[in-house]
């Protein structure tokens, strides 16, 4: 049946004017953009969204990157949405994506393993948690709408 996943166009994607290109890829791949919101994340919001990475060496840098400008958060819907969105965005490291998955979204607009321009939930459990994080919980009070 239909499935939902969480997608984020990260600050470099938005500031680099990739939003329309990415949305065209999304729609042509058969996804429906069920909900979307543009947000300016703060340190607390990003830290709690990426809590599973809190012990990683790149965590502080990831927070700086994800708070460096607005992000576009979307719920995408289609059959097999979670795996299909992950396939469409390509590997985490955009440098690798440019070689192994040249038609992927990260190959198109990403820079390296951190600045990879988009996010996608990696499992049904993650999708549920991440959708709730942005669209259900009142914790989103920490997350300020951008416009
Ligand atoms: P994302 O798929 O949103 O999930 C976690 C994010 O952490 C990832 O995209 C990157 O932006 C960042 N990240 C993952 N691995 C690394 C790494 N090795 N170095 C720097 N940033 C990373």
TrEMBL record:
Active-site residues, Swiss-Prot/TrEMBL: 119
Residues of the full protein shown: 884 to 1030 of 1030
Family: Belongs to the NDK family.
Binding site for ATP: 10, 58, 86, 92, 106, 116
Domain of life: Eukaryota
Protein species of origin: Trema orientale
Protein name: Nucleoside diphosphate kinase
């Amino acid at each position: 049946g239909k499935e939902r996943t969480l997608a984020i166009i990260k600050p470099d994607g938005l500031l680099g004017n990739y939003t329309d290109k990415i949305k065209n890829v999304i729609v042509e791949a058969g996804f429906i953009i069920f909900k979307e919101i543009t947000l300016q994340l703060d340190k607390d919001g990003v830290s709690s969204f990426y809590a599973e990475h809190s012990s990683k060496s790149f965590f502080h840098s990831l927070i700086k990157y994800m708070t460096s400008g607005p992000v576009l958060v979307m719920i995408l819907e289609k059959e097999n949405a979670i795996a299909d969105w992950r396939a469409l965005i390509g590997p985490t490291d955009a440098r690798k994506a440019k070689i192994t998955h040249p038609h992927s979204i990260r190959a198109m607009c990403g820079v390296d393993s951190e600045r990879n321009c988009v996010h996608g939930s990696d499992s049904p459990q993650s999708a549920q948690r991440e959708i709730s994080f942005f669209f259900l919980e009142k914790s989103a009070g920490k997350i300020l709408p951008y416009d």
